[in-house]
């Protein structure tokens, strides 16, 4: 394992294959300690415009490149990622506040994203359609042009790579804006790897800015006429605004947003396995995952047996500075997130909820917390928490569990534990979620699957051929060989 440097030197924004220094910088903070991780470039709307123009200029040659050459480049990117994994892990701990194991998972997963994207280059681009007139009639997918990618801080490796790798494989060019909380591992680190892989200038660009500049830069990344599609992963309020602006400009937008995901534990479940899944799903990366378990729904017949199993596991998770690999629960990313979690916890306790284990908040560190007695009038029942606090709620029937799951504006993921797969599968069909995992937690992802939600959890799908559908245009192309008759009057 490499140690992250006390302060990281960032060379600038990455535009048209060049490192471009910004006039101003902002502090990129280690959330565990509050120490400075790096001075990050505080770019402007004009920087975003320059990056978009560079990507637009690079698009024709990249789109015309042989698909095998694009695939080879993507595999080269993957190889570099794999070699530099220890560096990413150390910086993910220092800049992102993640546990060592979480960083190791991300580093491995990102290599598979690029390999999966390379493989998609060899897949069919369309289909041959029947024609009444004997035409050669085809529906063919073509790259769109410049794709803006706005990525989040919670899984900056995975969610950034997934946001652009398949679009890049399809022949699009990219302008990436990472979160201001993780400008390095979510953005400029990728630029270093693209430079090392010798991706052509302008094909991949990264711009960064402080929180105060996000709105202006974001508007440019959506409204510029050269931008043809937007890939966004983040909060539902921001996603709504991005989708609305994209719609106003008639641009494609794939937005993967928040969740209020349930883990449903039926009366015939393997409770030990379910307790482990609940613990992982609720508290991995401090619950700062869009598909984290935010409601544990337990059949009343096994509720009394399950709750202590879950509480015992949660109480064993060590909390502290993520520089120590034994600390599984690191800090929340910033003080705003701590305030959000504290407000929900305080509201629940004031309205009668009971703390089974945890409940303590020290700075940015929040203990893994289980609550009972949570009711629909509490903030934590309806609002996304994005922190290590989870209610455990009993239910009587399968219908009631389904209703409790669906009683939210969100619809991202879910998990169901039961030894009766047919029963669980029947329930899954009635859940208003984009994903559901039987005998596993709601936290699941693979590079080639259709990842995304319903309702307020997003539009479109990331992953594999579903990303290709999202970030290409389908064109109807025909070859007529004199078979179509025209009216004689013409």
From TrEMBL:
Q: Which organism is it from?
A: Pararhodobacter zhoushanensis
Residues forming the Aldehyde dehydrogenase domain are: 19-477
Keyword Iron in record: no
Membrane-spanning segments:
none
Question: What Pfam family does this protein match (any one)?
Answer: Aldedh
UniProt-recorded name of the protein: Aldehyde dehydrogenase family protein
**Key word NAD present:** yes
Q: State the organism's lineage.
A: Bacteria, Pseudomonadati, Pseudomonadota, Alphaproteobacteria, Rhodobacterales
Among Gene3D superfamilies, the record links this protein to: Aldehyde Dehydrogenase, Chain A, domain 1, Aldehyde Dehydrogenase, Chain A, domain 2
Family note? Belongs to the aldehyde dehydrogenase family.
UniProt keyword list: NAD, Oxidoreductase
Query: InterPro entries given for it?
Result: Ald_DH/histidinol_DH, Ald_DH_C, Ald_DH_N, Aldehyde_DH_dom
